[in-house]
Design goal:
287 residues
């Protein structure tokens, strides 16, 4: 139960202390990877060995700290360590705050503000056309909820702090835009690895979306998915976008009011899905 307790406290801290989110920065990770690339010459080591060189020290450090704090001071240090790991592995940006910023932009903002706010939630460049932009944002929210939140919680409950740290580091490195050619293959291998790591959490999230929303439409969208990408990362994202969006009972967007309504429905779906996830995590922690 300590694991689930740690998860709940970390989620509450994220909501009531949004200023702490600013500490969830991974700028150091790019410098750390560049330093290792210079030291070991990643062009010669190969992408898989380079991945191991980057990940192993961070995994080892987390494992050592986890062992040091385990059952220390009647479990209080272990609880504090677990909360810290979960909190700093979420995000890194708080999703609900970004959704609020986009809703504010829809309400009173200019077209430029809307595009800027939308770009923080979408995978692709946001469209300038409102109806298309809102669909992109809603789908982006449903993908981000899985990437930023659900996957971290799942692997933390299953394998502990080491798994949560490994997932977030791999995700951040796979998106690193460092122009160094020696890191190009490294990003490709880590992206491939991330796709398979997220395979199971993605399917559980699809179930949560369907249960929390329109189950029939969501299931129909899942059954109709025949043109999935070969890349597992892209395949996961396609499923989350299409099945998740189909689980929202929505209509065409013709004005700002309807746009805000659809975005709120997307947020409501991922928040309700969080309740389903917490129930699943409770079952996992008991088992």
């Amino acid at each position: 139960m300590m694991i689930l307790f740690s998860v709940v406290i970390a989620l509450i801290l994220e909501r009531i202390l949004p200023q702490l989110v600013e500490f969830r920065r991974f700028d150091w990770l790019s410098e750390y990877t560049q330093w290792l690339a210079d030291m070991f010459n990643f062009q010669r080591t190969g992408a898989w060995l380079a991945s191991a060189i980057v990940l192993f020290p961070l995994i080892l450090l987390t494992w050592i700290l986890n062992g040091m704090f385990e059952n220390a001071l009647f479990g209080l240090f272990e609880l504090a360590f677990n909360i810290a790991v979960i909190f700093f592995c979420l995000g890194p940006r708080e999703l609900d705050t970004q959704v609020d910023h986009y809703l504010d932009a829809l309400d009173v903002g200019s077209s430029e503000q809307r595009i800027n706010s939308a770009s923080r939630l979408t995978i692709l460049q946001p469209s300038s056309e409102l109806s298309e932009q809102v669909v992109q944002v809603c789908k982006g929210i449903l993908v981000a909820a899985n990437t930023r939140l659900y996957s971290v919680l799942f692997w933390f409950v299953v394998f502990g702090p080491v798994a949560a740290v490994m997932l977030r580091v791999i995700e951040q490195l796979s998106q690193n835009q460092n122009p160094d050619e020696r890191l190009f293959e490294l990003r490709g291998r880590l992206s491939f690895l991330l796709g398979w790591i997220n395979w199971l959490p993605t399917r559980l999230t699809l179930f949560a979306y369907m249960v929390s929303g329109n189950f029939d439409d969501g299931m129909q969208a899942f059954r109709n998915e025949t043109g999935l990408s070969v890349d597992m990362n892209e395949q996961n994202n396609e499923l989350l976008q299409n099945v998740g969006f189909a689980s929202i009972a929505t209509r065409s967007v013709e004005n700002d009011t309807q746009a805000m309504e659809v975005v709120r429905k997307s947020r409501g779906l991922y928040l309700r899905s969080l309740m389903v996830w917490l129930f699943l995590l409770l079952l996992l922690s008991v088992l």
